Amino acid sequence: MKLVIFGSTGGIGRQLVAQALEQGHTVAAFARNPSKLELKHINLRVVQGDALDPASVEKAVQGQDAVLSSLGAGASPFGTIRAEGTRNIVQAMEKTGARRLICVSTIGVGDSWDNLDFLWKYLMFGLLFRSVYKDHVRQEEYVKQSRLEWTIIRPAGLTDGDRTGDYRHVFPGTDKPIKGRVSRADVADFMLKELADRAYLHKTPGVSY
Description:
- The protein has helices at 11-22, 54-61, 81-96, 118-128, 130-144, 184-193; strands at residues 2-6, 26-31, 44-48, 66-69, 100-104, 149-155, 157-159, 168-169, 181-183, 206-208.
- It is α/β, with parallel strands linked by helices.
- It has one domain (2-208): NAD(P)-binding Rossmann-like Domain (Rossmann fold, 3-Layer(aba) Sandwich), CATH 3.40.50.
- 44% of the residues are buried.
């Protein structure tokens, strides 16, 4: 498939690019700073642009079979790039006719709130990272209000562990046995599997060990 990946220089994004190329996809890696993506491949094209710039987002989306987004706020975790960037991606897809969107949010949003432990509910998202949580909520709203064929992935706490392919997904909010962590490599693995599996179309599966 022809894929455009937003957030390609982040932890999940780098895994998405590498694994997508490994699987034979043609990848357009959207990056504000292309020099951060050192990977070279015949099927890789790095597209310079800013997710907050609608024109550059639309240009990158044009002609793609699917869009994968793992947008993060980078050095400014309290920004709104997740929501605003996602809104630009949704609008670009609706304008250009691209249909399939798989994007990363976070566990704890919506009906996954009870998957969080006390620390994350009341200290992390409840206080320290309240703006981050709100940004993810708005991000999901933009996606759910769209006419796209979307899937929102809600990973648990991210680690730099290996890709195992052995993780849980689509667990209820009352499910306490989840370990509350998952590697970025396994999140990318799950996202790419969703390209060929429409079981979670218009759904918000969580991902955790």
